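To fix ideas, we quote verbatim one protein's residues and fold tokens.
>
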Amino acid sequence: MKLLYKRMILTAGMTVLLPLSAHADMPGHHPAYLHALSDLRAARWMIAHRPGDAAVSSQEDIAITEIDRAIGEIKHAAYDDGKNLDDHPQVDAPMDQPGRLHQAADLLARVHHDIDREEDDPMTRDLKHRALMHVEQAQAAVDHAIDDVHYER
């Protein structure tokens, strides 16, 4: 009787805990969030570590600020989606454009594509739209910086 009681308790405990452990490993609705974070971090690094003059650095500062804001929004959305924020997927490659600004522009375009997916959760939808807005503003700043370098402004 005592053995039967222990088995019943063990079975009940496993019945309760098993679905929770399976849920922890589920990829969620948007696995692209973590990939977008890796690409944003890489784009930020390329812009921040690019040697340049003061004219370009103002556009670079704008791009970095917008990337930081996009990272914050995507982290929030990824957290709400149950993602592990310590997971850092590999950055998109190859990058065939010369120079770090061109590479950052390519990465930002890929980030935009990664996070611009249908979202059915209204709370996460707002986060996604804000993140997209910041990515688009970062893209515009990088494009201006590329033009400034090209036209030697």
